[in-house]
Amino acid sequence: VQLQAFGGGLVQAGGSLRLSCALSGRIFVSYYMGWFRQAPGKEREFVAQTAWSGRNIFYTNYADSVKGRVTISADSAVNTVFLQMNSLKPEDTAVYYCAAWARPRRSYTNAGDVDYWGRGTLVTVSS
Questions:
Q1: How far is Cα of residue 80 from the mean position of the Cα atoms in its chain?
Q2: CA–CA distances in Å: residue 93 to residues 7, 36, 40, 51, 124
Q3: In 89-124, which positions are buried (b, 16+ CB within 10 angstroms) versus exposed (e)?
Q4: Is 6 within 8 Å of 30 (Cβ atoms)?
Q5: What is the pLDDT along the chain (127 residues), one digit of tens a residue?
Q6: What's the sign of the alpha-carbon dihedral 52, 104, 121, 15?
């Protein structure tokens, strides 16, 4: 499985960015994908996750720190997940990692349970 992420960059506080991540190399009945982030000196933390089967998105979940500012979505035709981030804050500055799980989990918020990682993409929010 390969995860290819795009969309990081530099943005001013209050601005928006959209990250995308495409999964290739394996076909799943259902897809479980999401995003984590890691700020300098901190542990990798959960941001958002979604799951879909065919055209049916049946699950989304967000970290409390981003609820209301971040929307995760997916294009099932191309096995791609998007992370729309609005009202960005300097504390959102981090390397953002695309994540995927090979099977359903009881929880998707633990980085140790992720089966596949993409290369990180840096998001920098200036004050």
A1: 10
A2: 14, 12, 9, 25, 5
A3: eeebbbbbbbbbbeeeeeebeeeeebebbbebbebb
A4: no
A5: 999 999 999 999 999 999 999 999 998 999 999 999 999 999 999 999 999 999 999 999 999 999 999 999 999 999 999 999 999 999 999 999 999 999 999 999 999 999 999 999 999 999 9
A6: positive
